[in-house]
Design goal:
Keywords: ATP synthesis, CF(1), Hydrogen ion transport, Ion transport, Membrane, Transport
Structural class: alpha/beta
Helix content: 55-70%
Membrane topology: Peripheral membrane protein
Protein name: ATP synthase gamma chain
CATH topology: Pyruvate Kinase, Chain: A, domain 1
Radius of gyration: 32 Å
Main location: membrane
Largest sheet: 5 strands, mixed
CATH superfamily: ATP synthase, F1 complex, gamma subunit
Function: Produces ATP from ADP in the presence of a proton gradient across the membrane. The gamma chain is believed to be important in regulating ATPase activity and the flow of protons through the CF(0) complex.
Number of helices: 5
């Protein structure tokens, strides 16, 4: 009876191990699929960055040509108004499985914020939730792009919110905080100042005849700078989207290694239990055989 109870216990344990093995195998398949999606999305985002930069270069050239026609002493940058605040745009993620990606971005935003009057715009639902947990007030939030083609639409929403904020209340600076793909996330966080706009980087001497304008210079430069800021937002979001998926790919790779180790342990446990079952069966057969051949066995 003792042997039979042991058989039942071992059989139950083997069934549990097989169930856990099946679950781990299914999890491994899901992780593999998520790794494939993350890798494809990262490549997709990287492929679009060159086009965004090319468009920004074209707008930058137009700004430079417009500035050649500006009168001497022309200053397109207005002085910040008294009591103005800074806007910090933090590009986080819409989905999880990215490790400490959002934590480090928000920590950089807090560091940049300091004690100066600031408003934080958070891109990405996960980032907004984490900001709330960190007691970091968000003045405005928007969902992050879920695929590369959606980044331009989100950039447009951010630009509209920023320019609307300028109309409602004076703002001294606008900063964009985002991550770029790199070997270490802490080393790949970028803080880019969008406003005040650095017109000096587009100024260039030209021997050509100044271009002819159909719009007043201020109006033309305002439209060009808004377009350039929009393209900078597009690049920041695309870089962050690529970095997000690189972080997710790394997280899935680590999870895959963990599941493989777990499957190896379960396989080893399964072999041990099966060996114990075989040993118990051999012992039971040997005992039964000795009982049949014993001279003291009653016939």
């Amino acid at each position: 009876m003792g042997v039979r109870q042991g058989d039942i216990a071992m059989s139950s344990k083997l069934s549990e191990i097989e169930s856990r093995t099946a679950s781990a195998t299914q999890l491994q398949a899901v992780i593999g699929a998520m790794r494939g999606i993350a890798a494809a999305r990262e490549r997709e985002a990287q492929a679009r960055i060159a086009g965004i930069r090319s468009a920004a270069a074209t707008v930058g050239e137009a700004i430079g040509r417009a500035l050649t026609a500006a009168p001497s002493g022309y200053a397109p940058d207005p002085a910040p108004a008294q009591g103005s605040v800074r806007i910090l745009i933090v590009v986080c993620t819409e989905q999880g499985f990215v490790g400490g990606f959002n934590d480090r971005l928000l920590a950089r935003a807090e560091q940049l914020k300091g004690t100066a009057p600031s408003e934080i715009f958070v891109v990405g639902t996960r980032g907004a939730m984490l900001a709330q947990e960190r007691a970091l007030h968000c003045a405005w939030t928007v969902p992050m792009a879920s695929h590369a083609d959606d980044a331009m639409r989100v950039a447009g929403q951010i630009a509209d919110a920023v320019f609307a904020r300028f109309r409602d209340r004076a703002s001294s600076q606008v900063w964009l905080v985002y991550a770029t793909p790199g070997p270490a996330l802490a080393e790949s966080i970028v803080t880019r100042r969008l406003v005040p706009f650095e017109f000096a980087r587009f100024r260039r001497a030209s021997s050509r005849q100044p271009p002819l304008f159909n719009l007043p210079l201020d109006q033309l430069l305002t439209g060009l700078t808004e377009r350039y800021v929009y393209l900078e937002l597009c690049e920041g979001l695309m870089q962050s989207f690529a970095s997000e998926n690189a972080a997710r790919l790394a997280a899935m790779l680590a999870a895959s290694h963990h599941v493989k180790d777990q499957l190896a342990v379960l396989t080893r446990e399964s072999r041990i239990v099966r060996q114990s079952e075989i040993t118990a069966e051999i012992a039971e057969l040997a005992t039964a055989g000795r009982a049949r051949t014993s001279p003291y066995t009653q016939t």
